[in-house]
Amino acid sequence: xxxxxxxKRVPAPGxxxxxxxxxxxxxxxxxxxxxSPHEECAVEEAVKIAETxxxxxxxxxxxxxxxxxxxxxxxxxxxxEAVLIPTDGSDxxxxxxxxxxxxxxxxxxxxxxxxxxxxxxxxxxSGGYQxxxxxxxxxxxxxxxxxxxxxxxxxxxxxxxxxxVGSEIYSIPLPAVIGVKEGINLPRYPTLxxxxxxxxxEVQRIEEERVESGQRMVRLVTPPQDVxxxxxxxxxxxxxxxxxxxxxxxx
Amino acid sequence: MxxxxxxxxxxxxxxxxxxxxxxxxxxxxxxxxxxxxxxxxDFEVDDRLADFGVSTIHQIGxxxxxxxxxxxxxxxxxxxxxxxxxxxxxxxxxxxGNEVMSNVGALTGxxxxxxxxxxxxxxxxxxxRTRWGGxxxxxxxxxxPIKLLTVTEHAVExxxxxxxxxxxxxxxxxxxxxxDLVTQVVDRVVTSGGITLTTAxxxxxxxxxxxxxxxxAPLEELAGLLGGVVGCSxxxxxxxxxPHSDQVGQTGTVVAPDVYIACGISGAIQHWVGMxxxxxIIAINTDAEAPMVTKADYAVVGDxxxxxxxxVEELKSRQSTR
Lengths: 251, 322
Ligand SMILES: Cc1cc2nc3c(=O)[nH]c(=O)nc-3n(C[C@H](O)[C@H](O)[C@H](O)COP(=O)(O)OP(=O)(O)OC[C@H]3O[C@@H](n4cnc5c(N)ncnc54)[C@H](O)[C@@H]3O)c2cc1C
Ligand SMILES: Nc1ncnc2c1ncn2[C@@H]1O[C@H](COP(=O)(O)O)[C@@H](O)[C@H]1O
Description:
The structure holds 2 protein chains of 2 kinds.
Chain A lengths: L1 E5 L2 E3 L21 E3 L1 H16 L3 E8 L4 H9 L4 E6 L7 H15 L7 E5 L10 H9 L3 E11 L2 E7 L3 E8 L2 E5 L11 H9 L3 E2 L9 E7 L9 E2 L3 H10 L6
Chain B lengths: L1 E4 L2 E2 L2 E2 L3 H15 L3 E6 L13 E7 L9 H15 L3 E5 L2 H14 L3 E9 L4 E7 L4 E7 L4 E5 L16 E5 L5 H4 L3 E6 L11 E5 L10 H9 L3 E4 L1 H5 L20 E5 L5 H4 L7 E6 L5 H5 L2 E4 L2 H17 L2
Parallel strand pairs in B: 1-4, 1-6, 4-5, 5-11, 6-10, 7-10, 13-14, 13-15, 15-16, 16-17
Antiparallel strand pairs in B: 2-3, 7-8, 8-9
Bound molecules: flavin-adenine dinucleotide and adenosine monophosphate.
Flavin-adenine dinucleotide sits at the interface of chains B and A.
């Protein structure tokens, strides 16, 4: 079983979004970086499937050279190989991202297709909800998004997706593409041994051209903030008075 | 014309799809072009579409469209788009809307702008869209022969208007491949009855400050007394204290209850976007400077381990003296 997971490096902002002066990015001087949460779970799921199905996991990212940090985080929790499609760090729109990933996958598949390609349901920062679907369509493979359960069954996978009242089940043949949601599992923490192993892996680089799509980010804008004052309540009595006033106490 | 894809679950329209219809109607009025709707499957078309200025409904029929498949829906809409060349195709930015429109984008080779809040038309369109689950906005320019977009849920209010116009229904039969139909729903499991995070009038939510899985017992009790449910932050789910289905925020559930009580939650922006639409927000936190405290409507600065049980006791004693 060969599995590919596509991950994106994103900043981990705290309570406020502060932009750079040119409004092209979040100011990351004081921030650390992470893998988007849905994708962190996709990596964990791939590693788990690989453990029970004698598999190998490759992680791939399109991003600045610093994104090697996120590839190594994935290697430290059990991925085996890593691929970087280097950029100058600017924001790539979903179509150009998908086209570069598709082309990289084609060159990685010279010895046969990945059985599974996992994506996050949506990237944490830009949230276009589409890179995985575009890659799947370009490769001519089935794709389902929003998945919170994967069971490998013979030549296919059984997938579970949550709805407002329960879940929907899909059953699709391999090779397939899946968009994963946080909650599908609880990602493990890296071990010291995992971290040391991760350092030894050589990250493969694949250069791709950025295609023009007609969509281009002009600038980022912080939404207006609600700055109403907070009323301080002194004790439990004051809280219960308020709850009664708001008419939410069951009689 | 502007074409709205009306997303529905076996004939029942998704409530937020009316917001997309409202958005598309004003777009069609701005441009002075007709508003058409695409309706997928052999289900009875909802009369309410006429209230959104829709003059023509394209009813897309095929044997394989009696249950949902994003790929099949996407192929069908892509073929309709090729055949009628709308100015723009609009759907709601729900899981389903985004997924189908992404398929349309992939098949037509057109860009698809997800979660749009505002559009300024012109030679190229200037679009304001949601990033980071709503904590940041992006201005983007879109230059494409046919514009594909989804509308951020709850960014506009659904506004039906009586038009009295007659709606014409025309049939459209797409060619769907084997590949389009393999991703169809094969089974459904109904698990929940009763109130859930999204429907509860009160959410009592706990963060790292709760300290342990057992620490949630008083929060459960408080939620019970208020007819609500318990929610939590991502730190809590990451620690394995609560299931992910309880998580509120960007990568969890978005809630908008009458009252949201945040206990020991700092108020990181990814949590905040998941509950900022709550009518009243009450924070309980030891840190008076925590963003949750400064942004809340009301706050108790104190140890939740003392404050929450005290609220529970006070509620119970008032109940027993009533
Ligand atoms: C892409 C992305 C997506 C994310 N999505 C989500 C999401 O969906 N939901 C989410 O919640 N987070 C999300 N996060 C994580 C988020 O950034 C924060 O890390 C998280 O919300 C913090 O959880 P917390 O408030 O429980 O913990 P902390 O930030 O550690 O805050 C704990 C708070 O408890 C208070 N406290 C401590 N002890 C007590 C006590 N005894 N009594 C009262 N108060 C006490 C402290 O003063 C502090 O304010 C996301 C992050 C990223 C990068
Ligand atoms: N720059 C990138 N590098 C690798 N994978 C990406 C990148 N951007 C998006 N993806 C993948 O595509 C998914 C959907 O992204 P999006 O369409 O931006 O919401 C993400 O969850 C990732 O798995």
